[in-house]
Design goal:
By secondary structure, the chain is of the alpha+beta class. It folds into 2 domains: about 1-90, no CATH class; about 95-350, 4-Layer Sandwich (Phosphatase 2c, domain 1). The chain has helices spanning about 10-20, 25-50, 55-85, 90-100, 130-135, 150-170, 175-200, 250-255, 260-265, 300-305, 310-320, 320-335, and strands at about 100-110, 120-125, 140-145, 210, 210-215, 220-225, 230-235, 240, 285-290, 295-300, 340-350.
Length: about 350
Amino acid sequence: MQLTPMPPALTLSERLYCLLLWLYPPKFRRIYRREMLLLFRDCYREARQKAGIREIIRFWCFILYELIITASVEHYRTMLALLRHLMGVEEKELLMANALLSLEVAACTDKGIKRPSNEDSVASMVPQDAQVLTQKGALFIVADGMGGFNLGDVASNLVVQQVSEYYYQDTNTDIGTSLVQAIRQANLALRQYIAAEAEKDFDARRMGTTCIAAILHDTTAYIANIGDSRAYIVREGQARQISQDHSWVAEQVRLGNLTSEEARSHEKRNVIYRCLGTEDDVKIDLFTEPVQDGDILVLCTDGLTNVVRDEELAAIVTQYNSQESTARLIALANENGGPDNITAVVAHVSLATQEQ
């Protein structure tokens, strides 16, 4: 992949944004600076493409408002943490519990053979800060956009970035609730984007995306899902689907009208009845799953599961490390025709034995 040089205007704007990031506490900057810069670049490019000084002004007004609010929240949280430390209120038990969890993670996406562009998006976030990892865990997201060239890519990328941002800024200690709320907020952001774009481009109304997101926290996996992207736990060489597909064929299989094999080749296998971007109030499934030492968490889009069987997926991720597994899963999907974009996250879980 070749990198396109950034235009001078973007470079100057990025420098200004980097200066503004100094409003945040140092620890927050170390953890999230890179992700925030990537989000800024994408949003700024979109604003520039609209070719209007008013749009650029609106963009910067939004950025300044967002920075002031979120920086204030982060300074408040930092102050509370400092007060707890000075008062001797340490979270030693949580830190010890989190130290038991060790992850080997890889994420990869590919446009496949038959699609002209890639409308999938993926994120893998394992905070380097021990306190953040202890409180919020590691976050993995896969989204499969729809709406045609560029539109699906924008939808999935926006949702992945928004979920990441909202989740780690949320101070709610209930992991599942915080994850679902982050997806709801991302959906509202996507709806606002669609409404603004639809005034100029009617096709923007077709935008939408699936979203499968997982948090590994302590010894539990929290999985939130909308659409037909999937989450698996692979244990002792067997793959078990944790999420539930919101697709027409999956519903027919649950009703007993189709077999799983018939669903794989059915003409309506790509029809889904629930996704982000279609309405303000969306129903999001939440699953909790205890994880064991040696478990493997897999998140993926239907571009993989439509052409790679569960037993093949399990065999690959069990035999190879995370990086090799993602590469081999995508290669196998392409060998089997690669009719769609392909995305996979593979996380090998290791749990140390806690000393009594």
